[in-house]
Amino acid sequence: MASLYDKPVRLLMHDMVHDIELKPDALISRDRVRSWFNERYPKIKDGTVAAHLLRMSVNSKSRVHYGAKPGEDDLFFQVDPKHFRLYQSQNDPAPIYPGDNIDQAVQEEVQELAEEGSPEFAYEKDLQNYLSKNLHLIESGLTLFEDEGINGLEFPVGGRFVDILATDSEGNYVVVELKVSKGYDRVVGQLLRYMAWIRENQAEPGQSVRGIIVARHISADLLLACSGVQGVKLFEYELSVSLREARKVRGCSAPVMIG
What we know:
By secondary structure, the chain is of the alpha+beta class.
């Protein structure tokens, strides 16, 4: 999507830093950033501002989804979920970029959960990445949300994150929440909260917001909870694995897959 103003949001972030004369060690809150944009560039959505703030924070893991560019997008350091300061290259850790191996902490958490009997957690990112590239499997015409280089993966909604934010063939928003094991009824409240945030802060007048829950198993309680909720659909996914024997061909050192 083209910029709403003469400059894209990522450049306006630099203008904000200059305008408020942000000092190297001073903290700035997420709300203060949003307020600056709301006062000067009211057409830019809060979600877009929040996503760019993460994109331009060198230690935010979410920036890998938003195509952070070395040097150009290395502006902030995230101190906590709500506060930021200017990036100091001489003192701060090296910036995270798309393609970096940043999942060690996540892998350790997965291992801990697996040892506690929750191995399916390890599939969450795989499921998210696969569905984001194959949203047509959920609904024809469904595409990943895009806005000024920000996409709908881990889209920020008031300090939390939507698994996948999509748009349908009519341009309406669709919030997709993933549960790699069983979907319980409590996920309905989570989904409705995300839908309400998108409706209030992201959607234009007349633009609707729907919700979709994808889980390995949909519980009876979740089915019952959603039976009276408008605009929410439930899907179960299945994993399948096929094997082919690998046979060595004469003259070749590597195995060849035989169909």
